[in-house]
Amino acid sequence: MRRGFLALVALALWVGAAGAAGAQQPAPRDTVLADTAAARRVRGDSVRQGPPISPTNAFLRSLVVPGWGQARLDRNVTAGLFIAFEGLAAAMVWKSQWQLDFARIRGKYVRSHTQEREDWIVLLVFNHLLSAAEAYVSAHLWGFPEALGVRAMPAPGGGAAIGVVIPLR
Fold first, then answer.
1. Which is the most buried residue in 33, 52, 63, 64, by most CB within 10 A?
2. DSSP 8-state class, residue 11
3. What is the pTM assigned to this prediction?
């Protein structure tokens, strides 16, 4: 157990160092490359900057600790929700294990407590995977405009309708 934890910490440090090293590379100065789409991806647009970490880096961070990739992408509410659910699920795994041990001593309801513990373990793993996938997608959609809105509109026939406003450039 201790070796696994140390391996996860080493992986997290390695991912963090790789992200920091990739973020500090200077932009290319070649005049031919300066006008290409590849150069804009490397440097970022002058109006919309690229994400602070790569999508893969965000994925790996949130796979190790749910919410870490989101926090690095300045999505603190989402990171907090993933961390809170992680704590809840871990506490419930511990509680259901305690209840299972007690049920084994009594010899009653062992099967239902075993199922409950397995359900919480599945939710814990699902939270890790969902957090990693959400961080990956968030890093890809970093420059997407945030000004989406919902507006009440008159409907044909005198009723009310809801419309979604999507600004396009």
1. 63
2. H
3. 0.59
